[in-house]
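Design a sequence for this backbone.
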């Protein structure tokens, strides 16, 4: 009998703090709430456990899967797939990827049989709980120009020449620049917009609306539509390394807006231009761009995202490139149960059971993405034939 597969990670260490003894004339304070560290686990499941498995148009995920396969099969065969080889090695994907290419794009029954024959589902849990939070994102489309004008005066800056990335103490990357021989943090959004790097970064393109530009910074990749009808795709080249501060949270905490969905936030910002400028400057994170040629938008996996079939995940727990079966609801409350591919990440996507669903481009996608915040769960699809040394499978 196979032993249950469980992979555990600690997301943080909990520090204990000594408390001063309470004064006699004051009531004792309530004990501090200590957050429980994330603990990721995988529970073996069957395809019959997946709600809506037989109803999904499963073949619709094949273009996204094939893009991942194109990436994987260009890597060394012994390379691990994901953290600690959760998905085995590239060699374990060679035959499934070859079979997937031969499936018809409208053969939903064939696609289901393919996954049932080559993959095993595992329910993702955090401290034993399978429930997590799922939001949505989209690809913004902005009006723009390749040259600055009175109408198009907001720059999307390229990667600065003085930006330096180095390995941080936590294993991630620190972003900064060298000043008099010392590594210092890179300027904040407010400092950049005030001209702090005017000599270090060139505009990739110019856009008309500061609010839309800020939303693009939140979403990541996007499209710029020129007056002649042509379109430029832009992707993230780098960031200034500063933490992200959400405008919706600021509006809610200050009692300025009760409905903090993205459509409502955008409307508020446009209706209050003076306050909007100061509020957006409170988000210190700044994104730098480059033009993307070919298919797009590109996710963190390095492949083009597929609307309705790509999901952003936390790569500390879920390997990029893995198929997942998602069980949640859309913003209207309708079931959203389908195969998706883990092909992207996001600054706010943190935790073992956490996902950001890619809705695509345009106003309809913006509306759905901006209003989505749903409870849900997912199952990871791991190759049945995984290298035991890598995947710790018996």
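Sequence:
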């Amino acid at each position: 009998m196979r032993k249950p597969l469980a992979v555990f990670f600690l997301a943080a260490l909990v520090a204990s703090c000594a408390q001063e003894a309470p004064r006699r004339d004051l009531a004792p304070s309530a004990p501090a709430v200590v957050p429980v560290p994330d603990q990721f686990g995988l529970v073996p499941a069957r395809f019959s456990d997946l709600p809506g498995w037989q109803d999904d148009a499963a073949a619709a995920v094949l273009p996204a899967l094939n893009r991942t396969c194109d990436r994987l099969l260009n890597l060394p065969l012994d390379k691990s797939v994901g953290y600690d080889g959760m998905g085995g090695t590239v060699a374990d994907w060679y035959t499934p990827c070859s079979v997937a290419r031969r499936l018809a794009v409208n053969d939903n029954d064939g696609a289901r049989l393919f996954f049932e024959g080559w993959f095993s589902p595992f329910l993702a849990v955090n401290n034993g709980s399978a429930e997590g939070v799922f939001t949505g994102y989209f690809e913004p489309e902005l009006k723009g120009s390749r040259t600055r004008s009175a109408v198009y005066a907001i720059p999307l800056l390229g990667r600065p020449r003085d930006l330096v990335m180095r390995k941080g103490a936590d294993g991630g990357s620190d972003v900064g620049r060298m000043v008099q021989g010392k590594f210092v943090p890179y300027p904040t959004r407010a400092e950049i917009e005030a001209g702090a790097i005017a000599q270090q970064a060139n505009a990739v393109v110019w856009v008309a609306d500061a609010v839309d530009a800020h939303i693009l910074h939140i979403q990541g990749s996007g499209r710029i539509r020129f007056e002649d009808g042509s379109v430029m795709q832009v992707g993230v080249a780098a960031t200034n390394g500063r933490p992200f501060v959400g405008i919706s949270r600021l509006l809610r905490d200050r009692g300025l807006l009760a409905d903090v969905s993205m459509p409502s936030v955008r409307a508020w910002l446009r209706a209050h231009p003076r306050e909007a400028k100061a509020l957006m400057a409170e988000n210190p994170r700044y994104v730098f761009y480059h033009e993307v040629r070919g298919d797009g938008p590109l996710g963190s996996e390095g492949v083009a995202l597929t609307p309705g079939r790509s999901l952003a995940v936390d790569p500390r727990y879920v390997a990029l490139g893995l198929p997942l079966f998602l069980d949640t609801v859309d913003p209207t409350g309708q079931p959203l149960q389908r195969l998706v591919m883990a092909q992207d990440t996001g600054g706010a996507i943190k935790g073992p059971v956490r996902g950001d669903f890619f809705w695509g481009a345009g106003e309809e996608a913006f509306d759905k993405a901006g209003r989505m915040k749903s409870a849900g769960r997912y199952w990871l699809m791991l190759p049945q034939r995984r290298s035991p040394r890598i995947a710790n499978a018996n």
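Residues 1-28, 389-394 have pLDDT under 50 and may be disordered.
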